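Final report, results section. Input specification for complex C-07:
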Amino acid sequence: MKKLLLGNEALAQGAIDAGLSGVYAYPGTPSTEITEYIQKSKIAQELNIHSSWSVNEKTAMEAALGMSYAGKKSMVVMKHVGLNVAADVFMNMSVSGINGGLVVVVADDPSMHSSQNEQDSRYYGKFAMIPILEPSNQQECYDITKYAFELSEKLGLPVLIRLVTRLSHSRAGVATGERIAQNNVHLPKIATQFQLIPMHARGRYKHLVDIQPDMLAISENSEFNIYHQGTNKTIGIIASGIAYNYLMENFEDGNCPYPVLKISQYPLLKEPIKELFDTCEKILVLEDGYPFIEEAISDFLGENRKVIGRLSGDIPRVGELNPDNIANALGFDIVINDKLPKVVMGRPPQLCVGCGHNDLFNAINVLKNESATQQVFGDIGCSALGVLSPYESINTLIEMGSSITMAKGASDAGIHPAIAVIGDSTFTHSGMTGLLDAIIEKTPITVIISDNSAIAMTGAQDSAASGRLISICKGLGIEDAHLKIITPLHKNLQENIDIIREEINYKGVSVVISQRPCVQLPKEKKDKLKEYTNVSIN
Amino acid sequence: MHSKINIILAGVGGQGILTIAAILDTAALDNNLHIKQSEVHGMSQRGGAVQSHVRISDQPIYSDLIPQGKADIIISVEPMELLRYLPFLKKDGYLITDSNPFENISNYPELDAVYDEIKSHKNHILIDAMKIAKDLGNSKATNIVLLGAASSLIPLSDESFQKAIATLFERKGERIVAKNLEAYLKGKEIAAEIVS
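Structure output:
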């Protein structure tokens, strides 16, 4: 019987069944459930598959590469912006190549449901010159993942699987197959493969360039790229990944009269696209995310435009696809209705009732009233909700770790008070190095680590910071006198304001740890955390 | 029997719409039907507007999202959230909602205006499901009362629903299973009175 699985869960099961030995990841919507599925899987536990969270996406990808070096199959999972953090190793491991199969899974978030941009990971795959797989449905999530490990070992390259939110977070029945055994430890055959000093790297890079035609040939014969001959040649359609489903939704029983090329594997195949160009009046490109295919196949000046899609304006340039905007592009007689009754108000996300961030923002807002020059640099996670009403406490929000370093730069420019607010897990993810920059220069900033002892926004996963914040800050060089711990509760408001004010007035780096467990944590976890929170600074 | 049905579930993050979805999924899978069910994870789950598209059919289903104007039913655990998805409702489709507002925003509209808007649609079931659940001694079962109210409009047998509820709450013990079955049946009974 089929199992009802999220796209993310189907992918995770596919990895287990492909003989995975370890998954490495940092939580991030919409990718989180992939790793969680493996963590909860009984079979994965029996097989001793590594699945603990990593500190960030870069450390995760490097660990996955280490496991591959040792000959075993590994997977690294992240949201789209996580790949920016891991870009260094990502770009270089396509040059070194892999030993055991290595699959990189990146979940993009078109429409920015839980993200700060819409970046399309297919550009990264092309940049690194590796194969990209883009499943269109839950069954393909399973099948493509098994295939990805096989392809990775066949080519000796990492393989990128690109998901989008709507596939990650939608369920359907999935048929699973046989489980392939894990690899044994075996070291790379070529001793210099993973030694990327220039003299070796040049050879490896040449090899990567040389096997591109092989990659294209594999793509052209891939069972996941499907060409439907159509009878109506007024439009030829190219639909990648999930866009294929939205397209077919518009035709009774999926009977589309136009020629359709469904793309789920890259590099972009040439032959069928050439046939569409030769036989059809127009080419409509449907892809969720950026106009990646459309850009590749349209003419640069757009004067003789035969290709339509997001660039031509036939599909909105921003936001995710759906059956309706595709119906519109097909010229169907539909009116997209975005008018709601007047009584419907927006309901943005907000902090939970009783959340410790709430009490911290209340203290920060009192200090804001005392100093018109105060600027607060925020960071990713639940604490980002301090941007919104009723708090409006935070002036900036860019990416993981930027609160501390932006506060530093602003302080260098003369801003005072310059306050950074960062969650505990975001701090260990990529805040620590920036704090060291500030310590080295004794920059007058106040860093508030809002420590709820969880990676809260993605579902309260364990934070690497739990029990380690004091020793990390002291180890980096924060003086005992300017490392403070406060408990964000209403009854402590005045005391907390006084402590933060005192540190703002200190002309060097100070850290205030605002510590209270996430209200979403189960009681057992909160009790366990008490061991950590009862530690004093001295 | 319909060959397919499209349902939108609506509410605020944390109100339990995914439990309704899971019961629908389980019942449909038990009948060997095709299912696609999208859900919201991440930021909006923190007190924001959330929705789930549930599609059940005896034929393969392509899109994970329901096209506009193609939803047969919208079930909401909050009255204003019900109205957020009106562009998806089929002509003469059904609106089913709990009447209790979840007021976590400062500009929540006049409740009577929300009710008037709901009542302007011919096919609506506006009930105090929360009170019904409380009266049955299980205030957490508001969502199950609403599912019961919608059940006769969904082409799945009563037996399948009851079996799915029993399966889903099994690990919480017999008493909780019984309480939820009671909530389901009460919702079904009240909807029958309203519709007739």
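Helices of chain B lie at 17-30, 79-83, 111-119, 129-135, 142-151, 158-169, 174-195. Chain B is about 40% helix and 20% strand. This concludes the modelling results for the funded period.
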